[in-house]
Write a structure and sequence with these properties.
This is Acetyltransferase. The chain is an alpha/beta fold and about 200 residues long. Helix content is about 30%, strand content about 30%. It has a single domain, classed as 3 Solenoid (UDP N-Acetylglucosamine Acyltransferase, domain 1). The model has no long low-confidence stretch (mean pLDDT about 95).
């Protein structure tokens, strides 16, 4: 079995394999080209992200600079926004849902390394997938560790380190990241009223 297949299957593998190095070089070429684009080159940016990711939905917007290892292991849904300096280490599959916002310097890290020194010297590593649901907002400088799942309708506070799965419909924050409170009907009613007030003010201008 090739090292690439071992990586894709979630098994331990050697990252210094020639096939994997070629795939990583391809991703780095595309990200370098993407990071050199200007705001006037939105169509070209879309072409690059379509070539980079396994799937990228409509209205994907990434603020350069952006970094990823492979891209081909990442699937991104509809209406996703990533702010500056986001990083996706996708040695295992990364799945991002619809209507997801990333603050600056969000890192999704699927890669893991042995806890013993000799095995690290032997260039062995492994990956565990990351899954992010729909309608998720992840605050700046958040790290999502290997194997984590973040549910639907979730807010992750800035500076969090996600080391356990996060359920649906909650606000979670901290290092390690813990559920702070649910997003309940009262919270939804408050923000619906804020939105109504905004549109009322616009209508009266």
């Amino acid at each position: 079995m090739s090292e690439k297949k071992r990586m894709i299957n979630g098994q331990i593998y050697r990252a210094n394999d020639s096939e994997l190095r070629a795939d990583m070089k391809h991703a780095r070429v595309l990200t370098r080209l993407f990071n050199q684009t200007t705001e006037e080159q939105q169509d070209y940016r879309r072409e690059l992200t379509k070539s980079l990711f396994a799937k990228s939905g409509s209205d994907l917007y990434i603020e350069p600079p952006f970094r990823t290892d492979y891209g081909c292991q990442t699937r991104i849904g509809e209406h996703v926004y990533m702010n500056y300096d986001c990083i996706i280490i996708d040695v295992a599959p990364v799945t991002i849902g619809n209507h997801v916002f990333f603050g600056p310097r969000v890192g999704l890290y699927t890669a893991g390394h042995p806890t013993t020194a000799q095995e690290r010297r032997d260039d062995l590593e492994y990956g565990k997938p990351i899954t992010i649901g729909d309608d998720v907002w992840i605050g700046g400088n958040t790290v999502v560790n290997p194997g984590m799942t973040i549910g639907n309708n979730v807010v992750i506070g800035s500076g969090s380190v996600v080391t356990k799965d996060i359920p649906d419909n909650v606000i979670a924050v901290g290092n390690p990241c813990r559920v702070l409170r649910p997003i309940d009907e009262a919270e939804e009613a408050y923000w619906a009223q804020q939105k109504a007030s905004y549109f009322e003010a616009l209508a009266n201008e």
